[in-house]
Design goal:
The structure is a homodimer. With about 350 residues, chain A is an alpha/beta fold. Helices cover about 35% and strands about 20% of the residues of chain A.
């Protein structure tokens, strides 16, 4: 009854979202700060005017404001360069369905976002991973010709490592690839560079963003893609007609309109990230310099899995990740200063 | 770059959702009443507690309440029999991706929901329509063997006709079909029967519902499927991890908890529907008896397209539909009594 690729595949398992019990939750890169008060006000206004009508299928209000916001980064951008989605996961699904046929191949780095593998499996396609080099860039294997290659994903900053490939290097990867390149910038707001500018130069570059992390809106589900209009025009065919609801469109628009709040909370997270990285190193962890809102680390003497479990028992959730054939470690989200202090205190008693 | 089926296809065009200008909007089967006040209260509570965390991936709160609500209709139902989606369109996409491979065949009645054709095209599959018989049931052509047949959709009540195939007849169709049958019950709350009970008897029957129409929540995007747990378990693999947001889960749960409000508004719509049907006939329209929140009609002497345009010019939006090779007509949503009176007054001056 089901397609064989569906029956055979394992479903994607998102990071633990415990209900009921209170954890210090540093496992899914949520923002410790509440969203801008302007978001709540906008949602309240929509509730007041009623929910009985369908939302704007194209989320026009958001696209207009986002085009304005990015006008210095993307020369020539208009609302037609933007596609909104029910979280950036929705966008990743749309691009996969648009470009990848069963039997096709999707390429992405290892280690990176595990979901790409699931997207390939649902589509009946194959995944191919290319290991990062020791400097966290990607070599020629990432752009190697393969007649079945239909899509490449590059999370940048990458998860779980928090590393960034510089835009000029990404431009070269995109130019060498025989297929579209999705630059998944879920964490770009915490980095010093991004690849938005490449979109204007190469129609095969699609940048995806989410409001889940840097705008504290994981619960709202809102993400978007930036690409040239002739690309967006095709992607629109593949999305569900009303993929964003009225509340999320209003909330997301209000969120990007409050850039002062955004900058303040982002700067606080970056400051805590730097402090946390230093403190973890002081406790004997090997940490990679991160440009995201999490830190990837391994302790010199303790097993990562054991530390994950000890922390969980102590009420602190972090993410233990194990990439077969590559290695394992802990991905710890940057929380508030108080959460960071608590984490460090607990770890101090364990290592 | 794009898959050939995507480039070749036309995108689905949803009913007009005009922004800015005020219409009496009777074109997309929205509910004229606001949603239950309990929905707004629940959304307010979620806003208050914050949106920075991811939602419950499985919308457990809703599934628990829905299983309770349907326990008399579906023997043995538990939350595991329910899958929530970002509108029932999300559910229709999930089942299509789960069962249909490129080159496969999807079968559905003509005239019915145009989106099924789009779902097939995105998947690279073919559509086959089977005309309704003169009594609005479906004959053996609907269940005929075809080795490429992978999925059948039956909207029940059907759109645009508002007609219903009785559950015992649907059971026979499902038993005779070589593939799963999706009974799309978007409008079932306005009908005298439904097919929920068939789910317990046949694992290949999947019933889909939406809160857009009968719960006045088109703007919230929330729908769900009811099927046996071993079916739901596979469908979960295909959905986006966090396909429903925190606000919609809370709002939808509050909506189905307020059955008194639901019954009151539904009964009002059914009463207006009966009155509107009689009045349209009095104006010379041929109307089919409807079990949904809209009426399908054609005037004996006037062209449907002309009436659509005249009504639009007069500030009243209805849906003009033309099914190639089958026929055309107007699908008019049942609004409030005031909206209905205005529609009838305008039509009275036109026909």
């Amino acid at each position: 009854m089901f397609r064989p690729n569906i029956t055979a595949m394992q479903g994607y398992v998102p990071g633990e979202q415990p209900r009921g019990m209170e954890f210090v939750k540093l496992n899914t890169n949520e923002n410790p700060f509440p969203c801008s008060p302007a978001v709540k006000a906008a949602i309240g206004r929509v509730c007041q005017s009623g929910l009985q009508r369908y939302p704007d299928p194209m989320a026009t209000a958001f696209r207009e404001r986002a085009a304005e916001l990015f006008k210095h980064e993307v020369p020539g951008i208009t609302p037609d360069w933007i596609l909104c989605g029910n979280g950036s996961d929705d966008i990743l699904t749309i691009v996969t369905r648009s470009f990848v046929a069963p039997g096709g191949l999707i390429r992405f780095p290892r280690p990176s976002y595990i979901l790409y593998n699931t997207l390939a499996a649902i589509q009946g396609a194959e995944s191919e991973t290319v290991d990062f080099k020791s400097d966290w860039t990607l070599g020629s294997a990432f752009t190697a010709a393969n007649e079945r290659l239909q899509l490449a994903f590059l999370p940048n900053p990458n998860s779980p490592t928090g590393t960034v490939i510089a835009p000029d290097k990404v431009a070269k990867l995109a130019a060498a690839l025989p297929c579209p390149l999705i630059v998944d910038e879920a964490y770009a707001d915490f980095a010093t560079t991004n690849c938005l500018g490449l979109v204007a130069e190469n129609e095969r570059v699609i940048v995806t963003r989410t409001l889940s992390k840097s705008y504290s809106l994981a619960g709202l589900r809102f993400g978007f893609a930036v690409a040239q209009p002739q690309i967006i025009e095709q992607l629109i065919k593949v999305k569900d007609s009303y993929n964003c609801d009225s509340l999320s469109i209003a909330g997301a628009t209000a969120a990007i309109d409050d850039q002062a709040y955004f900058a303040k909370t982002r700067d606080a997270i970056i400051a805590t990230r730097e402090r946390m990285t230093g403190a973890l190193r002081g406790l004997g962890f090997e940490c990679i310099d991160s440009q995201a809102n999490f830190v990837w680390c391994r302790h010199g003497k303790r097993e990562s899995r054991d530390l994950y479990q000890q922390l969980k028992d102590a009420g602190v959730l972090v993410r233990y990740m194990n990439y077969a054939g590559w290695g394992e470690g802990l991905r710890i989200s940057v929380g508030s200063d108080e959460q960071c202090d608590l984490l460090l205190a607990k770890l101090g008693g364990m290592v």
